[in-house]
Amino acid sequence: MSLIARNLSKTYKEGVNNQTVFTGVSLELDRGENLLVVGTTGSGKSTLINILGCLETPSSGTYLIGETDPLTFGRSKISKFRRDYLGFIFSEAYLLPQLTILENALIPCLATGLPLKADVAFAKQLLEQMKIGNCQDAHPESLSPEQRQRAAAVRAMIKRPSLILADEPTGRLDSRSAEPFIDDFLAAQKSCGSMLVMVTDSPDFKEKFDRTAKLDKTRWTISGRRKYGVDENDTVLNIRNSSEPAPALGLDEDEYIQDVESPQPKSESKPDEGEKLDAFRRRFQ
C-alpha cells in the first residue's frame, strides 16, 4: 500500500476574489512510513489533512492510495473508503464519557457490525503498547489528558487503517507528556503497518519521523531519511494525463473496494453471539 500525491493545491472563492491556501504539495509514502508536516497557523495544515482524508477535494493535483483515486468517488463510496482505510486523531480526544476506554477504542468496529474477539484482543494489545492497558475499564473523566489522547490513538489504529491522519494530536499536551506520547504512537503505528501523516505547528519531534515537510502558502519543502519519495528538487512524474481522469471503481452499494489492499484479513465465517461484546452492544441498542 502506498500514498502518492502530486501538486495538490487548494483555493477558495471569496466573492470575486480567490484565496489560495497552499500550492505544489507532492508527497509519497509506503506501508509503515510516516511524515511530519510543520506549518504556522493558517498555513493550510488542517486543509491538507482534510484533502488526504477525503473530506475536501483539492483545486488541482492528483492523489492515489494504492491504485485507487478516491477523489473520483461519490458520497457513498467515499464514506466506505474512509471507514475501511483511514484513521483520524485530533488535538481533542473526543472520547464518549459513558464508555470505558476499551469500548471507546472499539467504536470504529461498529461501522461494520460489532466487535469480534479478535478486535477486543487487538485493542487490548494496542492499549498495552500505548501504556494504558491498566486503564481499559476506566472512563475518560478519570484519566489525564495524555492518557485520553493515547486512547484516541488506539481508536485510530484499531482497524489497521492504510493511512492515519493526525491533526495536532499533541496540541493539548504539555512538553513532558507530548514526547513519550509521540514515541509510543509512532512505535504502534509502525507495528500496525499504517502510513501516518501528522501536522503540527511545532518542529520539536521532526527527528523522530521518517520524513518532515514544511508547509506554507507558497512553498512545500520535504526532506528525510526514507528510501523512496519526492524531494523538493526531484523530477515529479505524471501519474496520469490530467485530461484523462482515473476511472471510478463502479461499486455497488454493498460491495467493498477491491483494488485497494485490505488493511486486515476478513473472516470467512460469521461470528456467533458468543464472539461479540454483549455489554458493548447493549450500550448502542
What topology does this entry show?
Blueprint: E1 2-14, E2 17-30, E3 34-38, H1 45-52, E4 60-65, H2 75-85, E5 86-89, H3 101-105, H4 117-129, H5 145-157, E6 163-167, H6 175-192, E7 195-200, E8 211-215, E9 220-224, H7 278-283
Helix pairs in contact: 5-6
Give an overview of the whole structure.
By secondary structure, the chain is α/β, with parallel strands linked by helices. It has one domain: Rossmann fold, CATH 3.40.50.300. It contains seven helices and nine strands. The protein has helices spanning 45-52, 75-85, 101-105, 117-129, 145-157, 175-192, 278-283, and strands spanning 2-14, 17-30, 34-38, 60-65, 86-89, 163-167, 195-200, 211-215, 220-224. The strands form two sheets. Strands 5-6-7-3-8-9 form a six-stranded mixed β-sheet, with helices on both faces. A three-stranded antiparallel β-sheet has the order 2-1-4, with no helix packed on it. Strand 8 and strand 9 (220-224) form a beta hairpin. It starts with a strand and ends with a helix. Residues 226-276 have low confidence and may be disordered.
Short description:
This protein is an alpha/beta fold.
Highlighted features:
9 strands; Rossmann fold; three-stranded antiparallel sheet; globular; six-stranded mixed sheet; alpha/beta
Strand elements, count: 9
CATH superfamily: P-loop containing nucleotide triphosphate hydrolases
- What is the top-level CATH class? Alpha Beta
Can you tell me the overall shape?
globular
Beta-strand residue fraction: 15-25%
Going across the biggest sheet, name each strand in turn.
5-6-7-3-8-9
How would a crystallographer describe the biggest sheet? 6 strands, mixed
The number of domains: 1
Stretches with pLDDT under 50, minimum 5 residues: 226-276
Order of helices and strands: EEEHEHEHHHEHEEEH
Mean model confidence by pLDDT: 81
Question: What radius of gyration results from the CA coordinates?
Answer: 19 Å
Which CATH-level-2 architecture?
3-Layer(aba) Sandwich
Looking at the structure, the CATH topology is Rossmann fold
Broad structural category: alpha/beta
Query: Ends: how far apart?
Result: 36 Å
